[in-house]
Amino acid sequence: MRADGFSGEIKILTSCPSCQQGLSRYNDDSGTTADYIVVEMAKHLLGKDWLPDYVAKANNGGIERVLL
């Protein structure tokens, strides 16, 4: 990625929890960050505050509870 002169942020995306954990170990050494593909998609489609918005909606009646 750096060979062509790119100087921006490089993020490695994965859908595997084990891979994400393993790739995160090399963040400092490689100058990259690792994250989940679905998180990046949510940020792009729903905005950077997608997680707090989702949690607020879920806490305010967004989740049905079934009592047995």
Task: Set out the fold topology.
Blueprint lengths: L9 E5 L2 H8 L2 H4 L1 E5 H10 L3 H13 L6
Parallel strand pairs: 1-2
| Continuous helix count | 4
Strand content: 5-15%
* Element pattern in H and E: EHHEHH
Radius of gyration: 17 Å
Count the strands?
A: 2
Largest sheet: 2 strands, parallel
Helix content: 40-55%
Question: Could you please describe the fold and organization of this structure?
Answer:
The chain has 68 residues and is an alpha+beta fold. It has one domain. Helices cover 51% and strands 15% of the residues. It has a two-stranded parallel sheet. The longest helix is centred in the last third of the chain and has 13 residues. The protein is elongated and about 60 Å long.
Keywords:
68 residues; alpha+beta; 4 helices; two-stranded parallel sheet
How is this structure best summarized?
With 68 residues, the chain is of the alpha+beta class.
